[in-house]
UniProtKB/TrEMBL annotation:
The gene is pcm. It comes from Zooshikella ganghwensis. The lineage of its organism: Bacteria, Pseudomonadati, Pseudomonadota, Gammaproteobacteria, Oceanospirillales. Gene3D superfamilies: Vaccinia Virus protein VP39. One of its GO terms (cellular component) is cytoplasm. It comes from the Bacteria. PANTHER family: PROTEIN-L-ISOASPARTATE O-METHYLTRANSFERASE, PROTEIN-L-ISOASPARTATE(D-ASPARTATE) O-METHYLTRANSFERASE. Pfam families: PCMT. One of its GO terms (molecular function) is protein-L-isoaspartate (D-aspartate) O-methyltransferase activity. It catalyses: [protein]-L-isoaspartate + S-adenosyl-L-methionine = [protein]-L-isoaspartate alpha-methyl ester + S-adenosyl-L-homocysteine. Keywords: Cytoplasm, Methyltransferase, S-adenosyl-L-methionine, Transferase. It is found in: Cytoplasm. GO terms for biological process: methylation; protein repair. The active site is at S60. Its EC number is 2.1.1.77. This is Protein-L-isoaspartate O-methyltransferase.
Length: 210
């Protein structure tokens, strides 16, 4: 169930759903998603579906991971990316293969630790992890060329906009539970432009680290 054929089927499905970025498809073909869920769920790892990772959190659906990553990369490869909501670390490892440096913030300590360990086991070395509140971003390494937020706030956090480089992009689900829009924001010299990408359903971005 975790065979190359099963993975290939997922990649074809992503293509059918409109994912065009060859590099994103290539990386998603290579990265073993089944290692990011409990063994009991690994047979479902290559279905195009979100899966539970404990603490009422979920590993995003592959289509959404692909769509967000593709949107971030639309104007070319990225150097420095900030991720809010490390969760399982699956989106993190995808980014690590496509960007020079990834900075990832998570508010649940044990998820953060587990993801950090997993990426170390997989010999990923260009990711820095932080346990903390994503509403604050990670000012120490700002500005970022890309920011990806994998939990939904009701409004775009100002501090994240501040930490985006000029010309940088942010992909973020915005809205209340069950009715969010995935939005692509671009910071230009004259302000912020916004484009709606898709209706989505993410877990909420919650304040404070626990
Ligand atoms: N990208 C993850 C998705 C995990 S679900 C994956 O593919 O596995 C969203 C994650 O955002 C959860 O782990 C949740 O704990 C985290 N989160 C929610 N609010 C946060 C905040 N304010 N700061 C940092 N992380 C947050």
């Amino acid at each position: 169930m975790t065979s190359q054929r099963t993975r290939e089927r997922l990649i074809r499905r992503l293509q059918q759903e409109g994912i065009r970025d060859e590099r994103v498809l290539e990386v998603m073909r290579e990265v073993p998603r089944h290692l990011f869920v409990d063994e009991a769920l690994s047979h479902r790892a290559y279905e195009d579906t979100a899966l539970p990772i404990g603490y009422s959190q979920t590993l995003s659906q592959p289509y959404i991971v692909a769509k967000m990553t593709e949107a971030l990369r639309q104007s070319g490869p990225l150097e420095k990316v900030l991720e809010i909501g490390t969760g399982s670390g699956y989106q993190t490892i995808i980014l690590s293969q496509l960007c020079s440096q990834v900075f990832s913030v998570e508010r649940i300590k044990s998820l953060q630790r587990k993801a950090e360990q997993k990426l170390r086991q997989l010999s990923v070395r260009n990711v820095r992890f932080r346990y903390g509140d994503g509403f604050e971003g990670w000012p120490g390494y700002a500005p970022y060329d890309g920011i990806i937020v994998t939990a939904a706030p009701e409004d775009v956090p100002e501090k994240l906009i501040d930490q985006l480089a000029e010309g940088g992009r942010m992909v973020i689900p915005i809205g209340q539970s069950y009715e969010q829009q995935l939005v692509l924001l671009t910071k230009t010299s004259t302000g912020i432009t916004q484009r709606m990408l898709a209706p989505v359903r993410f877990v909420p971005l919650l304040p404070g680290a626990v």
